[in-house]
Amino acid sequence: MSLHDIARALVAAGKGIMAADRPSPAFYELLAAEGIAADDASYRNWTELLFTAPGLDDSVSGIIMTDEQTRLRDARGDSLLEGVIKRGMIPGISPFTGMVTLAGSAGETVGSGLDGLRERLADYAARGIAFSKWRAALQVGAGLPSDYAIEANAYVMAQVAALSQEAGIVPIVEPELMLYGEHSIETCFRITEHVLRRTFAALALHRVDLEGALVKASMVVAGDKCPVQADVATVAEMTVRVFRRAIPAAIPGIVFLSGGQSDYHATAHLNAMNANYELPWKLSFSYARALQRLPMRIWRNQPENVAAAQAALAHRARMNGLASVGLWTEAQDNAAAG
Ligand code: 13P
Known about the structure:
Layout: H1 3-10, E1 16-19, H2 24-33, H3 42-51, E2 60-65, H4 67-70, H5 80-86, E3 90-93, E4 98-101, E5 109-112, H6 117-126, E6 131-138, H7 147-166, E7 170-177, H8 185-205, E8 214-217, H9 232-246, E9 253-256, H10 263-276, E10 282-287, H11 289-299, H12 306-323, H13 330-337
Parallel strand pairs: 1-2, 1-10, 2-3, 3-6, 6-7, 7-8, 8-9, 9-10
Antiparallel strand pairs: 4-5
Helix pairs in contact: 7-8, 8-9, 9-10, 10-11, 10-12, 11-12
The structure holds 1,3-dihydroxyacetonephosphate.
């Protein structure tokens, strides 16, 4: 498939992406925070639960994986990656090796992992991986994000995007504005516009083919500690407005991260945008927490809970699939969830 075909397939009508790319150390931290006992096989078992959930392929086009996950095997010895491909879902890779502090900054970060990336991407492509994701985690606060962090992250994301396309891999460029803080929704709007413009300037400099790339974006929302929170219609209106200003129509799709939003808000916001606006790009999801929070609480690392956790995962994916075409309703969500 060409880059353009892969990019379009990832945002096919009614479908979105599952971000499963939490590295194992962070996964074990999350289990501990949830009070769930872990064992050596927990990461593998959780990954298998996610990748093999019945019905997931109805509303999930692709799965973002860690390098470790691409090498995991099920109890029979079969590759989980191969299983995803057989089910018709598109495997993707998060090829970064961690966030590092930008030298001379007040703790702002950039993703690392550019060394040897050309060769690693070629190897991933040979193993059937068709897209990549690279994230910038920009903090909002007094004087933040700095122009330094915005430019450094835009440049690195664009380099990764260009290297991905060279390998035949569709890049997902993720300039995330983190929702933690006291900032207003207007501040989020203003910074999002600037960050997107600078990100697209870097993509142009690096000769990235926009029709073979996707954007993973945060929604325009107030910080989680801001006393004034906007309603669903306002978040949808401001997010669509900032994208219209700053994201070229050549981009086939924008997929959202959930960023700490509740499951309800992640779905309701996406639905409101698709139900109420005529848009030049597909708007869909690339959620981790808003798909996996509830399934993990049901699972609790107990084999007897796997089927119920998988059903909850498929349900959240289906609801977000409906939201990606503006056909979700809260009543239907509650009814189907039982
Ligand atoms: P969340 O949906 O949990 O924000 O994660 C998406 C993601 O992949 C962040 O890079």
